[in-house]
């Protein structure tokens, strides 16, 4: 049985509007602007964009650059790879004549770090903070009977108020400015996710918000649809579709509550025989019998509950088996790469993981779509990595990032925890009031998911734990601390975890632990950087986690890292960070096989994964 409760009718056109992913439909057209753009470094003011655009590069100074992609690894010079500051992109395009009379929107999936966008020589849009989408209506700027030119100034400059932070250093001698960053991954820049032109009707669906709860076998779905372009009542139909796109029920209200008995719940990978089940909410607008607009939003029915000792989904305890990751690959840097993300998620399932953290920034929407459909739980993290020197400008950008990640990912069943920062200087007294405001802001947006920070500080000096729901910490005993001393791992991991729980009486999870390993380096006995050492190192951590799990409040382990990744030049980094259990080319080290044995066994032990018996036949020594 399905019950619909009708709520009051409202139409709201937000000032900033929604950020729904562009989808082709009966009422909406798409035009991808991905491809080969023209590109130039901006050095010593070679392009003036202080008041409009002037002094544009000549043809001889323009190079070809793929979009989406980071720009750094495409050219062959260190000047391009290490460029710090603005760069220039341009391209021309035409629109179909059928677009006349429609609203036209321009959407960027991400630009790192900031963007100023010009269309037909008019400044139309600016955005700060990478890894998040932004858009604007461009109808009035588009020429529908001739070519249009688009120019984008992308700036990789990081400061004391950006998210993340950074600074500039002037080299002695030549005076060249280089970037200094407090984080251990390469600061790739560019237009690194899709650029899309799309249309909507004049009256259009602007945003959809869906929340769900579970009562017994009944799924409770609350939804709100916001419209743009009208304040008058229009005809509406809202239809829930199952996974096979079969209509379940329809409503004529833009706000409502639907109760679905015997609902197919959204479950994480290996917690159920049908994981990642997605419904769809199809919204249609009508003028009489004429269809004005339609948009379909996927969602999963699930409920999260947490207390002082546990985190549950649909009433079942969750133990996180996961990774810290990076969007990082050869040549493309952080550019969207569909073959790569499919390979990554095949490996995630091969290894038996059920989760990962989007360390240390929001990942591409195409990645998040896969997580939704595959049942992979996400700890969704904003780009607030290694923050210090807390100030009002930084806070403003931090709150903006939280709002934007919420608006983008609020309907995703895979997103089960919001990570509001990674390794901040939470020992600083000023961090307390700062993170009080950050946590309060996120809870003003969403109370259906818990909050966390991935901590590096010891719990006795941290000022932020009281504002969180889940306590996560990163630990590198026998690597950065006591390098090579694997005997120190079990007591130190136990001490740290117990100290966090004792201080705040909340569930605890490890979000990073790992050892750099050069693929193919073998030593007997094991020694740091060898594959044998990584295996011995991980086995000691596993023992520590098993002991902590018996305490009843330890809820997960995420290894650092899924794959090797690029970093800034450092004397202790040989071609990047090598803590991956896979190489940067996504091939397994010995540790991947050990972790596979671990994760599949945990899935069998804790979640009753029936696939384990078949998988176990391939394991030796379990």
UniProtKB/TrEMBL annotation:
Question: For this protein, what reaction is catalysed?
Answer: a beta-D-glucuronoside + H2O = D-glucuronate + an alcohol
Q: Name one GO biological process term.
A: carbohydrate metabolic process
Give the superkingdom in one word: Eukaryota
Q: PANTHER family per the record?
A: BETA-GLUCURONIDASE (PTHR10066:SF67)
Task of the protein: Plays an important role in the degradation of dermatan and keratan sulfates.
Q: Taxonomically, what lineage is the organism?
A: Eukaryota, Metazoa, Ecdysozoa, Arthropoda, Hexapoda
Give the regulation of activity.
Answer: Inhibited by L-aspartic acid.
Source species, please?
Diabrotica balteata (Banded cucumber beetle)
Give start and end of each Glycosyl hydrolases family 2 sugar binding domain: 32-201
Q: How does it assemble?
A: Homotetramer.
Keyword Ribosomal protein annotated: no
Provide the E.C. number(s) assigned to this enzyme: 3.2.1.31
Stretches assigned to the Glycoside hydrolase family 2 catalytic domain: 309-602
| Recorded family membership | Belongs to the glycosyl hydrolase 2 family.
Q: Which UniProt keywords apply?
A: Glycosidase, Hydrolase, Lysosome
Q: What range(s) does the Glycoside hydrolase family 2 immunoglobulin-like beta-sandwich domain occupy? A: 203-302
GO molecular function terms noted in the UniProt entry: beta-glucuronidase activity; carbohydrate binding
What the entry lists under Pfam families is as follows: Glyco_hydro_2 (PF00703), Glyco_hydro_2_C (PF02836), Glyco_hydro_2_N (PF02837)
Q: What is this protein called?
A: Beta-glucuronidase
Q: Cite the InterPro entries for this sequence.
A: Beta-gal/glucu_dom_sf, Galactose-bd-like_sf, GH, Glyco_hydro_2, Glyco_hydro_2_AS, Glyco_hydro_2_cat, Glyco_hydro_2_CS, Glyco_hydro_2_N
- Pull one GO CC term from this UniProt entry: extracellular space
Broad class of enzyme this protein falls into: hydrolase
């Amino acid at each position: 049985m399905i019950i619909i409760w009708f709520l009051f009718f409202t139409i709201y056109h937000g000032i900033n509007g929604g950020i729904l992913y562009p989808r082709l439909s009966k009422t909406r057209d798409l035009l991808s602007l991905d491809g080969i753009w023209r590109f130039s470094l901006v050095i010593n003011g070679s392009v003036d964009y202080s008041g409009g655009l002037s002094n544009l590069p000549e043809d001889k100074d323009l190079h070809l650059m793929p979009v989406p992609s980071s720009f750094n690894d495409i050219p062959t010079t260190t000047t391009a790879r290490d460029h710090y500051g603005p760069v220039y992109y341009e391209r021309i395009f035409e629109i179909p004549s059928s677009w006349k009379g429609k609203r036209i929107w321009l959407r960027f999936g991400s630009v790192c770090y900031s963007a100023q966008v010009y269309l037909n020589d008019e400044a139309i849009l600016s955005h700060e903070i990478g890894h998040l989408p932004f858009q604007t209506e461009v109808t009035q700027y588009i020429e529908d009977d001739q070519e249009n030119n688009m120019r984008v100034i992308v700036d990789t400059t990081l400061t004391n108020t950006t998210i993340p932070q950074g600074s500039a250093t002037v080299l002695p001698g030549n005076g060249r400015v280089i970037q200094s960053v407090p984080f251990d991954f390469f600061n790739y820049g560019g237009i690194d996710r899709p650029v899309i032109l799309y249309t909507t009707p004049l009256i259009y669906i602007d945003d959809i918000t869906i929340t769900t709860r579970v009562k017994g076998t009944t799924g409770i779905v609350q939804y709100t649809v916001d419209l743009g372009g009208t304040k008058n009542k229009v005809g509406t139909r809202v239809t829930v579709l199952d996974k096979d796109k079969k209509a379940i029920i329809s409503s004529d209200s833009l706000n409502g509550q639907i109760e679905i008995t015997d609902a197919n719940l959204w479950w994480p990978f290996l917690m159920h025989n049908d994981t990642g089940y997605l419904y769809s909410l199809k919204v249609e607008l009508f003028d009489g019998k004429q269809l004005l607009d339609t948009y379909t939003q996927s969602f999963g029915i699930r409920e999260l509950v947490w207390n002082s000792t546990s985190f549950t989904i649909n009433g079942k305890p969750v133990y996180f088996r996961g990774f810290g990751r990076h969007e990082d690959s050869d040549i493309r840097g952080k550019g969207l790469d569909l073959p790569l993300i499919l390979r990554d998620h095949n490996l995630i399932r091969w290894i038996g993981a059920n989760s990962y953290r989007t360390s240390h920034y929001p990942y591409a929407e195409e990645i998040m779509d896969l997580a939704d459909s595959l049942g992979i739980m996400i700890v969704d993290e904003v780009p607030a990595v290694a923050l210090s020197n807390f100030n009002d400008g930084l806070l403003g950008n931090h709150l903006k990032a939280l709002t934007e990640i919420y608006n983008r990912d609020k309907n995703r069943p895979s997103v089960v925890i919001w990570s509001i920062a990674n390794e901040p200087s939470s020992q600083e007294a000023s961090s307390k009031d700062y993170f009080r405001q950050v946590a309060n802001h996120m809870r003003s947006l969403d109370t259906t998911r818990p909050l966390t920070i991935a901590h590096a500080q010891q719990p006795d000096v941290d000022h932020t734990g009281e504002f969180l729901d889940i306590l996560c910490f990163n630990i590198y005993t026998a690597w950065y601390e006591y390098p090579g001393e694997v005997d120190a791992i079990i007591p130190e991991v136990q001490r740290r975890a117990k100290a966090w729980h004792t201080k705040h009486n909340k569930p605890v999870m490890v979000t990073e632990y790992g050892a750099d390993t050069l693929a193919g380096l073998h030593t007997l006995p094991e020694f740091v950087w060898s594959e044998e050492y990584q295996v011995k190192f991980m086995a000691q951590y596993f023992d520590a986690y098993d002991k902590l799990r018996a305490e009843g409040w330890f809820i997960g382990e995420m290894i650092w890292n899924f794959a090797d990744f690029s970093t800034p030049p450092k004397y202790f980094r040989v071609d990047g960070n090598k803590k991956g259990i896979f190489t940067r080319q996504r091939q397994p080290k010995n540790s991947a096989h050990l972790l596979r044995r671990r994760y599949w066994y945990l899935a069998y032990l804790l979640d009753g994964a029936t696939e384990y018996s078949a998988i176990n036949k391939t394991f030796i020594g379990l």
